[in-house]
Amino acid sequence: MLAAASQAFADILTPPFRSVLLKSLALTIGLLVVIWLGLQGASVYFIDVTTYPWVETILVILTGIGFFIGLGFLVAPITSLLAGLFADEVAEVVERTHYPDDPPGRALPFGEQLVTTLKFTGVVILGNLVALLLLLVPGVNIAAFFVVNGYLLGREYFEGAAMRFRTPEEARTLRKRHAGTVFVAGLLIALVLAVPILNLVTPLFATAFMAHLNKRLSARPA
Predict the structure, then answer these.
(1) What is the mean pLDDT of residues 62-80?
(2) Are 84 and 1 in contact (CB under 8 A)?
(3) Closest CA to 159 of 187, 144, 179, 145
(4) Measured distance CA(34)–CA(3) in Å, rounded
(5) Following CA atoms 11, 128, 25, 181 in sequence, which dihedral angle do they give, to the nearest 10 degrees?
(6) Quick check: 194 and 153 in contact, CB under 8 A?
(7) d(C-alpha 129, C-alpha 113), whole Å
(8) Does the reported pTM lie above 0.90?
(9) How many beta carbons lie within 10 A of that of residue 117, not counting itself?
(10) Mean pLDDT of 8-12
(11) Could you tell me the sign of the dihedral formed by the alpha carbons of 65, 80, 116, 154, in that order?
């Protein structure tokens, strides 16, 4: 597994990945900036309503903290959403570069891919809302973030890689057969997601990582 993760990081730095990386970073940063500006505009409107300077100062501080936490919360759903846009392109590069003798994977139809991506993004948002509430519980806050995202991200990215070669039902069966391995792989993705700046490459890393892991697990006897 660590070899697959190391190879995925190495893949991100190669020329075939650079255009995808730039597009992914541009979309991620652009979307976060749009959300930030929207929240800032809304907060300025409401803060200007107050006539007490000390209240305005408190509100500015509180909204700044809230925006920071909120954008941190949105990184996981946004990266999951963007993964659906680049998953097949990234997986195809990995398969062509490292497994040229194997049959190529099949890209999902756009409609099916869009529905799957939106459905999973909703699940990630719900899961992270639960994790966000658990941040208030001492002793389980950090663990909640990694467990929730480790499970959800591992499941999504692995099944996405597996469905290039299998039906959705077969991909789920393979993931369940190797549930422990996929979960630990998801924890590694969640770890990347938790590191500022590095988390911007999460969709590329996770897709490449799971493409490698799918090949390795598929080669094992059933």
Answers:
(1) 67
(2) no
(3) 179
(4) 37
(5) 0
(6) no
(7) 24
(8) no
(9) 20
(10) 86
(11) negative
pLDDT (tens digit per residue) in 37-67: 777 777 666 666 555 666 667 766 767 676 6
**Residue whose entry in the numeric block shows the structure tokens 């639960």:** 130
Which two structure tokens, joined as six digits, stand for 23?
A: 């597009």
Q: Which of 142, 218, 220 is nearest to 187 (CA)?
A: 142
- Report angle CA 8, 12, 18 to the nearest 5 degrees: 155
Give me the half-sphere count of Cα atoms (radius 13 Å) on the Cβ side of residue 85.
14
**DSSP secondary structure letters along the chain:** -HHHHHHHHHHHTSHHHHHHHHHHHHHHHHHHHHHHHHHHHHHHHHHTT---HHHHHHHHHHHHHHHHHHHHHHHHHHHHHHHHHHHHHHHHHHHHHH-TTSPPP-PPPHHHHHHHHHHHHHHHHHHHHHHHHHTTSTTTHHHHHHHHHHHHHHHHHHHHHHTTTS-HHHHHHHHHHTHHHHHHHHHHHHHHHTSTTGGGGHHHHHHHHHHHHHHHHHTS--
For 1, the token pair is 């597994």
Token code pair at residue 186: 């998801």
The residue type at 190? A
The per-residue pLDDT for range 96-115, each reduced to its tens digit, is: 899 999 998 988 777 777 77
Q: What is d(CA 145, CA 198) in angstroms, rounded to the nearest whole number?
A: 17
